[in-house]
Amino acid sequence: MHNILYRLTGGLFGRRMVDNDILLLSTTGRRSGEAHTVPLLYLRDGDRLVVIASYGGRPDHPAWYHNLVADPKVGVQIRSDRTEMLARTADPAERDLWWPRIVGAYAGYADYQSRTDRVIPVVFLVPIETG
To answer: Residue 44 gets which letter from DSSP?
Structure first.
């Protein structure tokens, strides 16, 4: 329902959650080959976007993360703007640098990390250059 409202209203409804901006991330299913879209909190770093594969602190990574590892070409919608981007998981040093900023934006991520033994991935999304 969140995806539908977001798309129908160009992000007028559904663009903010827990005091943060929301984007729609579309990945290609690694098994099905079908498009899958999820709403995610994001941070901006110039043209680069940062999303967090927290899955609420569950023991496994979310399906969307497995999908973008298999195929890093993703679709991103912010409000009514849609962009194709490439996804890349932050290396350990980058994650360490970003984690305090991520927790500063939404303290729930620290709680999610405390619930799981896995390291919650931080993912960078960069625009695909055209031309």
So the answer is: E
Instruction: Answer whether 124's CB lies under 8 Å from 90's CB.
Output: yes
- The H-assigned helical ranges of the chain are 2-8, 63-70, 92-105, 108-114
Whole-prediction pTM:
0.85
pLDDT per position as a tens digit, 96-130:
999 999 999 999 999 999 999 999 999 999 999 75
Q: 70: which residues sit within 8 A by CB, 6+ positions away?
A: 28, 30
Q: Which CATH architecture describes the domain 2-126? A: Roll (2.30)
For residue 113, the one-letter residue type is Q
Domain ranges of the chain: 2-126
